[in-house]
Amino acid sequence: LRMASRIRQAIEQNEFMLHFQPVVETATGRVEKLEALLRWPSSDGTCISPEDFIPLSEETGLIIDIGRWVFEEAARTHVALTRAGHGDLSIAVNVSAVQFQRTDVAAVVGDAIERFELRPGALAIELTESSLMANRRSATAAMRRLSAQGTHVSLDDFGTGFSSMAYLRDLPIDALKIDRVFVSDVYANERSASICRAIITLAHTLGMAVVAEGVENAAQLDWLAATGCDFVQGYQLARPMDFDRLLTFLRPGE
Ligand code: G
Ligand code: G
Ligand code: MN
Ligand code: NA
Question: What would the DSSP string read from start to end of the chain?
Answer without folding.
Answer: -HHHHHHHHHHHTT--EEEEEEEEETTT--EEEEEEEEEEE-TTS-EE-HHHHHHHHHHHTHHHHHHHHHHHHHHHHHHHHHHTT-TT-EEEEE--HHHHHHS-HHHHHHHHHHHTT--GGGEEEEEEHHHHHS-HHHHHHHHHHHHHTT--EEEEEETSS---HHHHHHS---EEEE-HHHHTTTTT-HHHHHHHHHHHHHHHHTT-EEEE----SHHHHHHHHHHT--EE-STTT---B-HHHHHHHHSTT-
